[in-house]
């Protein structure tokens, strides 16, 4: 199980480079994530094994530190550096745990990535559709920003309408206001540890 | 108890609306039990509902235009209490009833009923499209309703969605019509067994509900139709969205705020689609300014990101 899984991941990580030499690099990032998600769906396994498999893909395709800062919002600058790091680590754990919990089974799903990439300012938008046989497709779009020469996902839009960052901002605000960063880290860790979403 | 009775009798009501179905005055779950629980915590100030309003960092760039978050939640204290009440009712009654419905009623029956009740909302959508002066869409809705009501055996089959006709269902409510003419959403509301809504959409509901009873009368004026048309689609929707709701709440630090945000964002996108013929992609509207990056002097949001080659320029810095 582990072997086939890592083989699949290896393929997913290495295959697109020669095949899509002319493709938009932002699109390739999304392709990498989608390949990783399909791989853990097909592998099934346990939540733990899926988390182990998807973690390097998420680390490579998401700008998790920036996503944490955006979700915390303007209050970020008032948080002590050690707590900032704890927040990023907790946000990363929760993100991985959520993907591992939600992408646990494969019944013919695939991702269709739109060929054209929209750009505004410095950011790019890659549109995809989660295709499930016999069901209506679900639009999932990714907003990417360049960081260190690589295009990284900084926000995800569900059904072209619901921004993950905007949702997390709302989700975090109350706890941040009441208990500060420490409290938010504790909440995030508890959610990630629960592991069933 | 009376709920399982309701569950068994409700489909029968639909199949034979004229028959006198024996029920013990089924208490529809719309009834709100008496005393709402006392507030366990002081309601947060409305300002706190806006995740970006941190006065300590007033020098930082303003939280420009997060979609769905422009409006606050002035009734947050009340809404949170109602949300708590709803969650208790959901756990005790609503979810078990919905899952029971899913378990008892075979899938073709549930799908047929879903289509049947959805088809009866098409005249309402049609009227609203007319009020919105969207005659093309009104016409397509009329075609859809006619096809499904006749060939689709009274709406049980959704043929208009497939079969080369390709006219899927679109919700369209009086709340949408009000929005079309610039009526704002008003305060966000969360009500037990109604769920998330806004004042505008809540007030629009009875107008939509009156279309069939006023235009046609019987059997739409019959309380048995009224109850079944509220209960069956309600249970069906609750059962069908169970996985999604569970995932949403289980992954949330603050389920109330998360649902509010998700619902308002989705509603804002619906209203934008009604108001603008073709909306430009809104996904890139928020400049997504990194709070860690040095604050720039008050740029317009549109100018916040340098239009330089991203490969050559790296505005984001990591916190470490």
Task: Summarize the structure in words.
The complex is a heterodimer of chains A (197) and B (320). Chain A has seven helices and six strands, in the order ααααααββββββα. In chain A, a hairpin with a 3-residue loop joins strand 5 and strand 6 (162-163). Chain A has helices spanning 2-14, 16-19, 25-43, 47-61, 64-72, 81-102, 164-194; strands spanning 110-113, 118-120, 123-131, 138-147, 150-158, 162-163. Helices cover 57% and strands 19% of the residues of chain A. Chain A is globular. Chain A is of the alpha+beta class and 197 residues long. Chain B has 320 residues and is mainly α. Chain B is built from eleven helices and two strands, in the order H-H-H-H-H-H-H-E-E-H-H-H-H. A two-stranded antiparallel sheet of chain B has the order 1-2. In chain B, strand 1 (188-191) and strand 2 (195-198) form a beta hairpin. The termini of chain B are far apart. The chains are: A alpha+beta (197), B mainly alpha (320). At the A-B interface, helix 5, helix 6, strand 4, strand 5 and strand 6 of A face helix 10 and helix 11 of B.
Task: Determine the mean pLDDT of chain A.
Answer: 87
**Biggest interface and residues each:** A-B, 60 and 57 residues
- The number of strands of chain A is 6
Beta-strand percent range of chain A: 15-25%
How does the major sheet of chain A shape up?
6 strands, antiparallel
Element-by-element helix/strand order of chain B:
HHHHHHHEEHHHH
Spell out the helices and strands of chain A N to C. HHHHHHEEEEEEH
Shape of chain B: globular
The helix content of chain B is: 40-55%
Low-confidence stretches of chain B: 1-70, 296-320
Structural class of chain A: alpha+beta
Q: How many H/I helices of chain B?
A: 11
| Protein structure class of chain B | mainly alpha
Shape of chain A: globular
Distance between the termini of chain A: 23 Å
Structure summary, number of beta strands of chain B: 2
Rg over CA atoms of chain B: 23 Å
